[in-house]
Amino acid sequence: MSLFQKLRTEGVFKWVSLNLSENLLKSSKTPLLGAGPLRTCQNPRFYRRKKRAQSESLESPVETSTVNCDNVRPISRKTRAQAQAALLEYLHSTRSLQFIDAENMSKNSPFFIKKILEKVKNKAEIGSSITRFLRYHPINEFEPFFESLGLKPSEFVSLLPRDLMFLSDDQVLLENYYVLCNYGIARNKIGKIYKEAPEVFRYDSGVLQLKLQAYIEMGLSQSAMIKAVASSPYLLIGDANREFVKMMERLKSVGIESSWIEKHLSEGNHYDWSQMLDLLSLFSKMGFNGEQLGELIRQHPGILLECSGNMAFSFVGLLLKLGLTLNEIYMFFLQFPPIEFGKFYRNFRHCYLFLIEIEMDIEEIGRIVHSHTVLLGSCALKRANSLLTNLSVGKKRLCSIIKDNPQELKKWVLGSKVGPLPNSGEDLKSQIQKTKFLSDLGYVENTKEFEKAFKLFRGNGMELQERFDFLVKYGLDRKVITETIKVAPQILNQSINVLEMKINFLIHSLGYPISSLVTFLSYLSYTSERVELRMSMYNWLKDQGVAEPNLALSTIVACGEDYFIDCYVNRHPKGAEIWQKLKQKIYSH
User: Which carries the bigger pLDDT value, residue 99 or residue 5?
Assistant: First the structure.
């Protein structure tokens, strides 16, 4: 490259950098001079063809759309600047693209720049190497074009025209593109429109402009429509979107003007206008009049706009589930606290799941929600497991603390220091009862056996005693129960409901008398699934005539699984197959 060429290339690039800010180039809303079809001009070449260059391979246009990465490795600032300047020179001077288009494409297509850099061999003179490469290897201009519109290679590779490679060959696309640019939509937002509503770029001349004008005539400002179109490109497809029009009319009817919409719409979000209309209808059914509804939305836009109202629907549904009436929900929203709705909902939902996790009764949760709705939405609680550990308490005591005073939740928010709670009188009482229960079983206090049993038997003394008495009520001998639970303490670590379910299964489903527990009380320590699987397999083997009838329950249930399979299941050729089918069926319940 001659000195004149280098000076010209660098001069063009510096001039652009000085006169057009980077932000303007990335999201230009400045109207273009060339509205309508692309205006081309014949620019003279500022380089001569060298014989050495002419001898280089004149291959077909380089294929650059096969790269499957969405991350660009760091390139030095100097190298990137030289590559961008060379691409700018090619697009503007050689391909005759408008200067602002060439500048935008060269500066905002890092993936394409990286691919071009990988093609050149002379790394010492990047600018001249790229210029030489582009001279003999025409590029697919749609790639840097789509990338400069905000799309990644993985997003636009399927959108590339099959039979075109030069932008100037698709005047229909460019005309509609310029309409959007001149309207004020940022260039890096247009890619989303092309991806979600490509038919917009096939409109005949003037059609797109009329569609945009139709929304303006409804009373919406141009700034509001820019955000609406960028977030919901489908608004430009077909006739004016009915749900969107109804939504705008509904907002206007409750006193919300176009300026509010412009302020709160986000170009990066997607809006479901139909769902938002349904939410407004729900609030009207609650009892909100137009003035109240307008004030609520103005004060708390997230109610309507967060996930297109889906959060608000979920919140109302949860409140109804927990026992609040529509009128009570209406009164709550009338006095909604000064907190962002999205944050309030996430806090509330976390508190609700927290109470579920510590096994609080649903009725108690409903009572707390009814009386302390604002509190639950204002507290960003720590996780349940973390809190239980830091407080050194069990779930039952934590439930009791919260039920007595829900305001305690304020002390356990994220970022607060939480230490162990002092032993309560209930804890001391429980320890005394547990000590007495173990002493009645025959354990001697202050011995290793006693300390081991104290850890193995879970629950407070009252609960353990109630479970013991429950078994006695079924006619079992106290001595048998005592001897059995010393060997298998896990029997009493189950709730009364679980024990009752296992006994009913033994009597009503398996057909064994209650007296069978006298010789095999350890049955209660096994899971219902294990017992059902063993008994179902045993009954099938009996029906096939390969198992002895009237085997003891302990013989079937107590042995290990490998032993049971070897001694019983494998007695029949299809035994293993039936075993797996029964296992899958029973354990999938």
Answer: 99
* C-alpha neighbours within 13 Å on the C-beta side of residue 75: 21
Q: Which two tokens stand for residue 135?
A: 């001279």
Q: Are residues 226 and 183 in contact, defined by beta-carbon separation less than 8 angstroms?
A: yes
Q: Is 238 left (phi over 0), alpha (psi -120 to 50) or beta?
A: left
pLDDT tens sequence across 109-155: 999 989 988 888 777 788 888 888 888 888 999 999 999 999 999 99
In this predicted model, what pLDDT tens digit does every residue of 1-51 receive, in sequence order? 443 344 333 443 333 333 333 333 343 333 433 333 333 333 333 333 333
What mean pLDDT value characterizes the chain? Answer: 82
* C-beta neighbour count of 165 within 10 angstroms: 15
The answer to whether 231 touches 197, Cβ cutoff 8 Å, is: no
Residue 413 phi, psi dihedral angles, 5° rounding: -80, 165
Q: What is the pTM of this model?
A: 0.58
Q: Is the pLDDT of residue 413 over 50?
A: yes
How many CB atoms neighbour CB 188 within 10 A? 18
How far is C-alpha 79 from the geometric centre of its chain's CA atoms?
39
List all residues 6 or more positions away from 579 whose beta carbon is below 8 Å from its beta carbon. Answer: 537, 565, 569
Residue 426 — pLDDT band, cuts 50, 70, 90?
Answer: low
User: Tokens at residue 337, please?
Assistant: 């606290």
Q: What angle is formed at CA 383 by the lines to CA 380 and CA 388, rounded to 5 degrees?
A: 125
User: CA 27 to CA 30: how far, in whole Å?
Assistant: 9
